[in-house]
Write a structure and sequence with these properties.
The structure is a homodimer.
Chain A (H helix, E strand, L loop, with lengths): L3 H10 L24 H13 L14 H9 L1 H18 L10 E5 L9 H5 L10 H10 L6 H13 L2 E9 L3 H10 L7 E5 L8 H14 L3 E7 L2 H4 L7 E4 L9
Parallel strand pairs in A: 1-2, 1-4, 2-3, 4-5
Helix pairs in contact in A: 4-7
Keywords (chains A, B): Glycoprotein, Signal, Storage protein
Function (chains A, B): May function as somatic storage protein during early seedling development.
Family (chains A, B): Belongs to the APS1/VSP family.
């Protein structure tokens, strides 16, 4: 459906700029309204984070550790992800697949296809500052489970005929661990796995992922959909026809 | 801070395209997952709606009327709005006001400054198809209350030195009722109230509001922030440096 010029005009006329990194403020230290109890405030904070109203944040509010843990380990998170997956599939079914293998669906990996909750559980559910060393030790173990809902979604989109491209902020030297982890938990049949190479270091996630999407469009791919847990998976340029944000109240990547 | 060329480059490089109206699907008839109870599903539906994952929808799911009513009449909605207002104010305080009265904050009116919950309460909380006749009868009464949080936010932004511009989908012939209603509940000191004129009829909300913002920029205004309950208040072109989505689970305007 969308030719490149059409995509461009759509991209130009329908966009949103929720975050300007140059002027965004750190609001993770926002004060609790006195009249609001912790759980209520934390539910509001999660909504603010999911809608990007909270802007850039470093760690989850310390008062919300239990609330975030309860949410992630309970039924609500599963329901939230499943309802989004249903909306994705409902949209995907309306897309006319051209049959030239150029209709792409992009997936992010961490907190989108794979869950690192076992790592974060041991690190305060996002309340501790990110430690790349210990996180990378976790990643190379290759034991991150799939979300049931994302596996269901992934397979449904594959069956509908989309070309699946995985676009992650993980580094190129984590390719083999990542591929093995993905296959071990049931993912298969992706067209490409795009990881950060040496040239991509130091680029913001929004720019890096936008550049990668842009290259795909230059190659003739039509990016029909995109699914990620971060706004930086979805924002930027060369965005998909529809983008879907899956919940992640543990960390924010700009 | 943001000159026009800078705004343009920011706008070009940081945007999102969550909704393509030409290909969006009506997903308000999405099936309930069998294993999920009504309240849990409805909380998930609200999250999907607030994050724009649900795309365009006509009426709230009939199973969610009680859940939406409970949410709107309870403490969580107040908390959600207050937490967003705190994030808005935290961001607004970082904006350097130039002193030339050109630093604009845009507010939508319905479900942003004024609440029409009394109308929707009598019409199924968004579960009945929208009836413009009965809704307009309500609007001309001019009795819509303010949200406490929005009044607090409005006054805080005014005090910080922003030029307040009200941009609404209401029609020009509702100007006097609207002004009176706003003043009656405590709003004052806006620079302009922009309503839909005869030429704006038939234009989507996203395009209409984008065009109005574009004209403001041409006049030399710098749109520092924008607050609305609809994605169509915030999406499009000529968007603000930061946009904030306040919750509204009752209706969706494309």
């Amino acid at each position: 459906m969308a030719s490149s010029p059409r995509s461009f005009s759509i991209l130009f006329f329908f966009f949103i700029f929720l975050i300007d990194p140059s002027i965004s403020t750190r609001t993770s230290f926002i004060k609790l309204p006195g009249s609001v109890d912790g759980s209520r405030y934390c539910d509001s904070w999660r909504l603010a984070a999911e809608t990007n109203n909270a802007g850039t944040w470093d760690v989850i509010p310390s008062v919300c550790v239990d609330s975030v843990a309860d949410y992630l380990n309970g039924e609500q998170f599963l329901s939230d992800y499943n309802v989004i997956a249903d909306y994705v599939i409902a949209f995907a079914k309306t897309v006319e697949i051209s049959g030239d293998d150029k209709d792409v669906w992009i997936f992010d990996i961490d907190e989108t296809l794979l869950t690192n909750i076992d790592y974060y559980k041991a690190h305060g559910y996002g309340s501790e500052p990110f430690d790349s060393n210990s996180y990378n030790e976790w990643v190379v173990q290759g034991t991150a489970p799939a979300f049931d809902a994302s596996l269901r979604l992934y397979n449904a989109l594959k069956k509908l005929g989309f070309t699946i491209i995985l676009l992650t902020g993980r580094d190129e030297d984590q390719r083999s661990f990542t591929e093995t982890n993905l296959r071990d938990v049931g993912y298969s049949g992706w067209e490409r796995l795009l990881l950060r190479g040496p040239k991509d270091q130091g680029t913001s996630a929004t720019n890096y992922k936008s550049e990668q999407r842009s290259k795909l469009i230059e190659e003739g791919f039509k990016i029909r959909g995109n699914t990620g847990d971060q706004w930086s998976d979805l924002l930027g340029f060369a965005v998909a026809d529809r983008s879907f944000k899956v919940p992640n109240p543990m960390y924010y990547i700009a």
